[in-house]
Amino acid sequence: MSCRMKLATKWTLLATAMASTMPAQKVATIENPARLPTPPMGFNNWSRLMCDLNETLFVKTADAMASNGLLEAGYNRINLDDCWMNDQRTENGSLAWNTTKFPHGLPWLGQYVKSKGFNFGIYEDAGNLTCGGYPGSLGHEEIDAQTFASWGIDYLKLDGCHVDPRHGRTLQEEYKYLYGHWHDVLGKMERPLIFSESAPAYFSTTSNFTDWYTVMDWVPQYGELARHSVDILVYMGAGSAWDSIMTNYRFNTLVARYQRPGYYNDPDFLIPDHPGLTLDERRSHFALWASFSAPLLISAYIPDLPSEDVAYLTNEALIAVNQDSLAEQATLASRDSKVDILTRSLADGSRLVTVLNHGNETSEINIPLDVLGLSSHCTYQARDLWDGSEQTIKRRITVKLNTHATAVYKLSVSRECAAVIPTGIIFNTASGNCLTGNTSTVSFEPCQGGRSQIWQVDSSGVIGPLSERSQCLTTNGESVSLQACTGSHVQKWSYAISGNLRNLGADKCLTERETGGIGVCGFEANHQVFGLPGGVQLAVLNKY
Ligand code: GLA
């Protein structure tokens, strides 16, 4: 037991700085998680076919998914994206489908997919127009919700193109107003639709993330999932599909603190038939999204999807991880220029380890057990979730990975070794820099994967690096440093939905800057928002 952990056992747990030593139990949720207890799985046409959608496509896709094993594996949603509607609303103000594209009509299509065992989803936009230029829902929210319900729709992706601030509101406030209004409208329905919110995506591309964080703070209160960042590369798009996957993957690592059962961060579609991807890259895409408990929405031409792609997309063990009832998002235990190591707990008490080689060469990776929050003195049984093979792990896991490949292991833990200490990098989610503790100094540096950048957060909010087992992150109110662990308030930190790490003694926040590292807590200030290892319970859920 480390010095830090000995101290922790003596202290009364602070309700405001709780970190679990057991697999994380999620904090009570704001909305009823039963509306969507696990992330959605299914099909959406957008990335693959964009506006080239019609009835035949959805019928053939549903038929293919019902026969090739995807439906049975859990992909039970057929979702339409943009361009399904007429250019104009009808005389009574309701939306109408394009009768050339959908000759039998959307109610008929809904019944068809439902008869096969799918749910049926649709796309609209919160503003004046959809991104494709079709009628938006602004001012028509009630009638559109009723229309969708009457067509048998049970899932709404609400995009955010063509939203302009009104009535003196800022743009961020206007989005909050519109998505909040939709939330109220949906909440009054007999059977509320699943609500996928695209609002954060419209704030993710500026260098100042304050508005983006602010939008992320409210989306979990209004809907079941949110598209937080840029679009994944469409089939005909210019550029590297792998780079696009990595961009969205990295965005997802910035927002782990928001996810809980009933609300999921959405890094956008799986694109398994994109011609620019190798098999290792396609498998990585799926394995990473599964490890995140992210929505698994496939955008591909499924009737022609090769069996090698269907095979990994239906990997039962990885789907079980994705659908795990804790819905914990895997977080970064370690990150360097070539390899990311992610970890999370699962409802059965086991620990997941996901290793991504994002470098350009084959790599052999050694992962000491303490990096995963586990005990170096225990033995664990590890199952490789790709092939089901088992191995016994003592002290470290070693894995050799092709470029852009991902390994996923499930480590079962015996009762006496069940304790998990939240462990991993602490990084500024705007700059990407890692909190680094060297001897007594603390700084923010590019993430290099060393033990001075891997931190344990114990159950009393005490934080220290793996490189210095008896040293703790400490502030004197003016600066932060590593000092011998004493358990005093100046060594205890709370973590909130805002991403702030607030020192209980000084009542100030960890701050990335050249000197000092502590400052008066601001509001979603770029230099004060951090990603922490999973399992650290949020002190204040739903602060805003
Ligand atoms: C935006 C969304 C995409 C898709 C298109 C449709 O770009 O982010 O996912 O819905 O609009 O026009």
UniProtKB/TrEMBL annotation:
CDD domains: beta-trefoil_Ricin_AglA, GH27. The keyword Repressor does not apply. Its EC number is 3.2.1.22. Keywords: Disulfide bond, Glycoprotein, Glycosidase, Hydrolase, Lectin, Secreted, Signal. It is an enzyme of class 3 (hydrolase). Residues 1-19 form the signal peptide. GO terms for molecular function: alpha-galactosidase activity; carbohydrate binding. Pfam families: Melibiase_2, Melibiase_C, Ricin_B_lectin. It is found in: Secreted. It comes from the Eukaryota. PROSITE patterns: RICIN_B_LECTIN. GO terms for cellular component: extracellular region. The keyword Amino-acid biosynthesis does not apply. Belongs to the glycosyl hydrolase 27 family. Hydrolyzes a variety of simple alpha-D-galactoside as well as more complex molecules such as oligosaccharides and polysaccharides. This is Alpha-galactosidase. It comes from Aspergillus coremiiformis.
